[in-house]
Specification:
single chain, 453 residues, alpha/beta, Rossmann fold, five-stranded mixed β-sheet, 17 helices
Length: 453
Amino acid sequence: MATQTLALSTTLALADGLPSSASDAPTRSALAALSGSLETAEDTLRALEAAGTVGFRGLDTEAWELDRAREIARRLRAETSTLLVLGIGGSALGASALDGALGPTCEDEHRLVVLDTVDPFAVRRTLLALDPAETAVAVISKSGGTVETAALFRTVLPWLRDGAGDAWTRRLVLITDTTHGALRPLADAHGLDALPVPDDVGGRFSVLTAVGILPAAYRGLDVDALLAGAHSMADRVRTRSIDTNPAWAFAGVHDLWWPRATVSILLTYSERLTLMGAWYMQLWAESLGKPMEEGRAYGWTPGGARGPADQHSQLQLWQEGPADRIVTVVRVEEHGADLTIPTLSGPEDGVGSYLAGTSLASLLEAERRGTTAALVSVGRPVLELVVPRVDAHAIGELIMLFESATAIAGLLRGINPFDQPGVEAGKQYAYGLLGREGFEERIAEVERLLGSP
């Protein structure tokens, strides 16, 4: 049986599928008219790929050392019961999203713990809950100098050495720049396992490199199917038609609605996809929140939301608040489990009696359709993304779809979706406050902006 794939519908995000009151909604012909600009964006992306600057769609198993990552994961699984990942942003969110989506279906005693905070209470609680003698540690930082990851490394290393004894060097793996950075000399000095963050793959695009594959393999997830799904979508997003290329359609609809809609919500009707929302938020925000050539700021404020929980917490705003958002509603067709709401007798039957005999999957689908209808009824654009089932193949597709759509969305407007100057500015201020050499002048700038502490 052929593997089912993701399907994206733009109908409810365009004038054809919205009420006549949404008179300013972009039309299907307007989306079709974007084809030339999308072609240009695709050509730019391919030129960057050919130049060796951008490589996330290449899925280069050999250069990314994915087989070696899986070998290291197998060894660590044999020696430990927990993998502790130290990283932040793109070095942590992808691994968390993979585990959140696929981990619950993996009947395996091995655990993944991701530490992506320097909150002292959280760090202490995490270490107290783990046995260093049973823990492997993966330090993920392309530069090796990311301040949060450096702090976590310096905190965790003595804990690992004291608890694991001479075995600590076998339990520590570094995922970092191929040749440079602060972690490479450490690997050389102690003979540690080190895996690459490829030069042509930025952190937020790196989940399908060793950054995400090592933790996934450690957890026993189906890495082959994950990569197969990504390869399948990589072929689809290279096609040159909005009708066959979901990345073009996703980026194109967003572009048509900007600047009327400057908020992009990913509303998932599956608990297993909740952390994909957090991963999507960094990918979309850090890549697209940029000034355009004419100086005007571009981008969307992204949000990840859980259906139906966030219907109760946010739908009021989405429907009757500012008409400034586009919502991508993710429907899962097969949940892998179901329960039927039982019939009760006596006074307790008065609680939701109309639900007796209804499956929870049917209830969830009614909630999804009801929320979608509520949004469409007032002219809010909705993209509908159908996921056949939450499995490794679908997650690989989903990752490649959003990464490609993000790249195309930026290139459509002539911005660089692969840098993050705003993030770097914040880092430099922090370096100055922490006394890092070369950033002393930043202290005065912070005090000028914020006042003395």
